[in-house]
Design brief:
The chain has three helices and seven strands. By secondary structure, it is an alpha+beta fold. The strands form two sheets. The protein has a five-stranded antiparallel β-sheet with strand order 1-4-5-6-3. A two-stranded antiparallel sheet has the order 2-7. The longest helix has 17 residues.
Length: about 140
């Protein structure tokens, strides 16, 4: 299964008073990985809006928490394309504590390509869809 991986350290601001990552921040981590993923593909969210006239609003999100991450832990996020449809993409994420190798969380986000001016769903540009296919789970 092909995947994209990115790493970073847990910041103080992401934690609660017990120095444990607040559950809502995992969705920020998913998006951080998605942003780096698109950068690796050779485009970014600004490019999508300017070149293709699309934005990628989220229509569904899910996270299953397995073990806590704490302040200063080294995190690795693995992203793969779980499903690619004409107008939508489902990304699957696995979040690991890179220091001990434990899975911290896993989940997904579903995004829809939408016209940045009109807001309605549109086809994912062929050039982007082709790049996404190389990270599909089979």
């Amino acid at each position: 299964m092909p995947s994209f991986k990115t790493s970073f350290r847990v910041s103080w601001v992401d934690t609660d008073s017990a120095k444990i990552v607040h559950f809502s921040n995992y969705f920020r981590y998913f998006e951080k990985a998605e942003e780096e993923f698109y950068r690796k593909l050779g485009c970014n969210f600004d490019d999508m809006a300017e070149k293709y006239g699309i934005i990628l609003p989220r229509v569904e999100a899910y996270c299953h928490y397995v073990s806590p991450l704490k302040f200063n832990d080294l995190v690795e996020i693995e992203l793969s394309v779980k499903e690619l449809r004409e107008k939508a993409v489902k990304y699957w994420f696995k979040v690991y504590n890179k220091q001990n190798g434990r899975l911290a969380a896993e989940g997904y986000i579903v995004v829809v390509a939408a016209d940045r001016n009109l807001g309605g769903a549109v086809k994912i540009p062929k050039e982007i869809a082709e790049k996404l296919k190389s990270y599909m789970e089979f």
